[in-house]
Amino acid sequence: MARALKVYGGCFDGTTRQIVAAPTKKAAAEALELSMYHFNGYGGETGNARELEVALSDPGKPFSAPVSGREEDVFVPGLVRYLRGKPWPRTA
To answer: Are strands 43-45 and 63-66 parallel, antiparallel or unpaired?
Structure first.
């Protein structure tokens, strides 16, 4: 029997919120390219409706958004790491 998907996320670099839908914390940490130590320290399961919708649209694929709290900020596919002086990627 396959495990139900959960959505995990966190702010691992201080500038971006990263989320992924995965069956286990270990699978989520691997998808986000993090050690379990780092993931357990800064991440966890989320219940945010917007994050659930985005992550469950493509399970196993990480999504990133800037940590600003603005509703217009969108999650973009992939792991976006903060690059000083570079603009945040936007979608239409």
So the answer is: unpaired
